[in-house]
Amino acid sequence: MKTKTAHLRVNPIMCEGHGLCAELLPELIRLDDWGYPIIDTAEVPPELLGLARRAADACPTLALLLDED
Amino acid sequence: MSATGTPASPPSSLPRVLQGLEDSHGPMDLAGHELLHGPLPEVQPERLIDMVERSGLRGRGGADFPTAIKLRAVASRRRMSCVVVNGSETEPASLKDHLLLARLPHLVLDGALLAAKAVGAGEVIVKLDQNAVEAAEGLQQAINQRDSLEMPISLGIGPDGYVTGEESAVIQFLNGRPAKPRFVPPRPFERGYRNRPTLVQNPETLAQIALVARHGAEWYRELGTAADPGSVLVTISGAVAYPGVYEMAFGTPMTDLIRAAGGETEPLQALLVGGYFGTWMPGAPAMDLRLARQELATLGCSLGAGVIIALGESACGLHESARIVDYLAGQSSGQCGPCVHGLAAIAGTFGALADGVAHGREYERLLRWCTEVRGRGACHHPNGVIRFVESALHVFHLDLQTHGAGPCPGRPAGLPLGPQVGWRSM
């Protein structure tokens, strides 16, 4: 059975550092010293996929992108 | 060589791209160009791409990408494409592209026309920055000498700025938007100028294509090494007697390059290899280097767009680097938080370290910022700056300690910041 993978990435031009993503998905996203997201692990574990979708939807500038294969 | 249009005999050694430069003081005209190189050959698209592939030619704009792969990527698109000659030479210590466009424009245009035919393009645009006055004049004269019905060639002149020469920034500008990098994908070869597949190529790369088309892939590989075939234009400046642009075979020892540039004017403490996005090498190991990609890569170096700066022992590597980091941080296009804020913070702390007024904790924080900011911009600007910063901290680490203890005896080396107007020709 093929396992679906999902990857998070940020469009750094659209990102304005609101920080909702890090609040909603602290397991995968933290903020740097200036409030911009750092994604330490791009690949989303299956148990966090729902939260990752919520985080991408919640981004006020649609800068957080979830690529689902 | 005959004036009746028979092919010229291939140059047996150097110079290749710079052939004829010494005999002309302004732009070489079309008649002189054809006398020297022969007329523009007719080459079928697939054959040209095949020749470029067998030659092993790689891009000379800094990314060192295999040219044949780029040509195929654009040629394989179904829509009509476009060729952009990226003449935006924004690296302050690089002069080679402006030199080619100002003095040997027909060789570059030949390459552009050959590439245009190979990728099914309908037009060629040459992008320049506004300080490149001689290049614009040389090119305009050359364009006027050509038959414009063959293939429309136009000039696009954009603003100065370190990041304006980045591939996507060039496309943004030509599409009528500010000359700032965009988030990719899509890359220009997929959707670029007017949403068409666009081949963006460095002027030197195109000049090499123009010679490969005439003399063949085997001829191209007669110079250089098996891993790095051909010749390359290198701009060398700093503590050498005759700074300028030199054409060298790949694999040439660094000492030969320095000798060609008239030798060092004082003992060298370091070389900056690859320009301001490059890396510092300490003087002694630097003399053992060769202009060879793989060898440089194992030492964490890259030739970039062929830029070498020689730092004499009377200068201060930390202070020169601090000036450069300040300049580069200010050249951010301002679109991405990590770049804008991160580079400003990095430049500030680096300057404090150079002045000897930073705490030990600030040094650790600077290293952390470098690790965290890398890769988080839309383009490679923050990555290049961070590579430069890390190499400066490594090579000049002794200065970090002594600067804390007292004033530095170094004299300003005057490394260029911002666009350089004019050059010393060979």
Question: Could you explain the architecture of this structure?
Answer:
- The complex is a heterodimer of chains A (69) and B (426).
- Chain A has 69 residues and is of the alpha+beta class.
- Chain A has one domain (6-68): Alpha-Beta Plaits, CATH 3.30.70.
- Chain A contains two helices and four strands.
- Chain A has a two-stranded antiparallel sheet. Chain A has a two-stranded antiparallel sheet with strand order 2-3.
- In chain A, β2 and β3 (37-39) form a beta hairpin.
- The two termini of chain A are 14 Å apart.
- Chain B is an alpha/beta fold.
- Chain B has helices spanning 30-37, 45-55, 67-75, 96-103, 105-119, 133-145, 167-174, 203-215, 217-220, 254-260, 283-287, 293-298, 317-330, 337-355, 360-373, 381-395, 397-405, and strands at 81-86, 121-129, 153-158, 198-201, 231-238, 244-249, 268-273, 279-282, 307-312.
- In chain B, the strands form two sheets. In chain B, strands 6-5-9-7-8 form a five-stranded mixed sheet, with helices on both faces. In chain B, strands 3-2-1-4 form a four-stranded parallel sheet, sandwiched between helices.
- Mean pLDDT of chain B is 92; it is low at 1-5 and 422-426.
- The chains are: A alpha+beta (69), B alpha/beta (426).
Secondary structure elements and their pairing?
The complex is a heterodimer of chains A (69) and B (426).
Chain A: E1 6-10, H1 20-24, E2 29-31, E3 37-39, H2 49-58, E4 64-68
Chain B: H1 30-37, H2 45-55, H3 67-75, E1 81-86, H4 96-103, H5 105-119, E2 121-129, H6 133-145, E3 153-158, H7 167-174, E4 198-201, H8 203-215, H9 217-220, E5 231-238, E6 244-249, H10 254-260, E7 268-273, E8 279-282, H11 283-287, H12 293-298, E9 307-312, H13 317-330, H14 337-355, H15 360-373, H16 381-395, H17 397-405
Parallel strand pairs in B: 1-2, 1-4, 2-3, 5-9
Antiparallel strand pairs in B: 5-6, 7-8, 7-9
Helix pairs in contact in B: 2-3, 2-5, 4-5, 4-6, 5-8, 13-14, 13-16, 14-15, 14-16, 15-16
